[in-house]
Design a protein that fits this description.
5-stranded mixed beta sheet; alpha/beta
Length: about 100
Amino acid sequence: MLAMEMGPDGAVVVTGRLDAAQAASAQAFLDRIQGVATLDCRGLEYISSAGLGVLLKTHKRLLASSGKLRLTGVGPHLKDIFTYSGFDQLFEIVPGP
């Protein structure tokens, strides 16, 4: 299960698992954001290659309009996934609260 919502600070708060079963709904949610967007990953338990694809597509779309996708609250397991996939070079990963 995956939940995405706008947090009080304007960040997109993600909880659960972002996998192939949830990719379409996650993409639909992220397609509505503009500019510089922060994705709060503190509650993200797992991300699959399909989930990485959603983030990449969103990041590319935002870059085309002078925006970007930033990630915060990335735990050690997710950090490993981003590092092994090379996505840590694509996204700005900022320390979370």
